[in-house]
Amino acid sequence: MTFVKLTVPFFLFAVAAESRNITIYNKCPFTIWPGILGPGNPAGGGFRLDAGQSRNINVDDAWTAGIIWARTACDGNFNCETGFCRNSEQCNGAGGVPPASLAEFTLKSWGGPDLYDVSLEDGYNIPVLIEPHGGSGCKRAGGCVKDINSECPEALSVKGHNGYTVACKSGCLGYNTDQECCRGAYGTPDKCHRSATDQMFKDACPTVILHRSVLLDLPFLCEITWFEEHEKCPACNGDLPKL
């Protein structure tokens, strides 16, 4: 049996051979609603996790283009301050509205190793860390040394109901220029250079994906026995959702 652990500050996953059992833990000091998008629509695409709770989901051993993210500060109609997918607890095939930090998985890619990464291509809401175990030379993906929301420029900031920044748009999402998005004249690896906004994201979260399309950032590849995905929430202060 293989295990994948995903955690929010910890999302924790646990995995198996023909199907993978993913255990998601919420170690944030507030409620989150994990959103799940991928083949098989695991757990109907989402559920509620109070602080300290965990829940198992099952995905195919070759789960392709799987995404897990955190929705935060959702009201009774499931209007969420970050990560909104639809007005229900289960996303049922709907993706999250950016900005939101994404944990991405393509298991048994090309019939071989697992691909995994943390993407902030469309922005950030909560820090995410994927920590693999059991493979040879596997490396952590994601993880943040500081909270991007506390440094987010006003032009990219998404405010919550309490007036604090609850998410930060990427430069591409916020400014939508060819240079920020590495497209058009900047759409090749030799022309795509990190902007000041990119550098702010990379300084805070060094191993995240920002520009996959031009191969400036690449996912991690490893034959994983099991791994942990941690969504490490910022220190408990006024910028946390008030639920």
TrEMBL record:
Disulfide pairings: C74-C80, C85-C91, C144-C205, C152-C168, C172-C181, C182-C192
Keyword Disulfide bond assigned: yes
Segment forming the signal sequence: 1-19
InterPro entries on file: Osmotin/thaumatin-like_sf (IPR037176), Thaumatin (IPR001938)
A Pfam match: Thaumatin
Keywords of the record: Disulfide bond, Signal
PANTHER family for this protein: PATHOGENESIS-RELATED PROTEIN 5-LIKE-RELATED, THAUMATIN FAMILY PROTEIN-RELATED
Name this polypeptide is given: Uncharacterized protein
Organism: Caenorhabditis briggsae
Lineage: Eukaryota, Metazoa, Ecdysozoa, Nematoda, Chromadorea
